[in-house]
Design goal:
Distance between the termini: 26 Å
Shape: globular
Strand order of the largest sheet: 1-2-3-4-5
Structural class: alpha/beta
Order of helices and strands: EEHEHEHE
CATH topology: Transcription Regulator spoIIAA
Mean pLDDT: 94
Number of strands: 5
Oligomer: single chain
CATH architecture: 2-Layer Sandwich
Strand content: 25-35%
Number of domains: 1
Number of helices: 3
Helix content: 25-40%
CATH superfamily: STAS domain
Length: 112
């Protein structure tokens, strides 16, 4: 199980690109990434799940915690999800009602 995490500042937001599996084993790395970004004062995040092949409840919890931590600092966390499996999980858990979910970074006006 592996999760690659890449961050890039685009416009006034930071994009956190994930590739691999977001689960109980890999989630601590993402928690550390979010903690570091928030400590640096980054509060407007876009989490790109476009290359995530699997996400479990622990991974979903990390996203929700990041959302809450950013909101406490008047920030936002938005998601990019195009894989039908990931989109289905977001819908089944009603997280698509909490997060703004985009089909692509281009939809947000980012050139990638």
């Amino acid at each position: 199980m592996q999760l690659d995490i890449h961050t890039v500042a685009l416009h006034d937001r930071t994009v956190v690109r994930l590739e691999g599996e977001l689960d109980a084993y890999t989630a601590p790395r993402l928690v550390a990434c979010f903690d570091d970004l928030l400590a640096e004062g980054v509060t407007d995040l876009v989490v790109d799940l476009g290359r995530v092949s699997f996400i479990d409840s622990t991974g979903l919890g990390v996203l929700v915690n990041a959302y809450n931590a950013a909101a406490e600092r008047d920030g936002t966390v938005e998601l990019v999800a195009s894989d039908p499996r990931v989109v289905r999980v977001l819908k089944m858990t009603s997280l698509d009602q909490i997060f703004t979910v985009h089909a692509s970074l281009e939809e947000l006006g980012f050139e990638v």
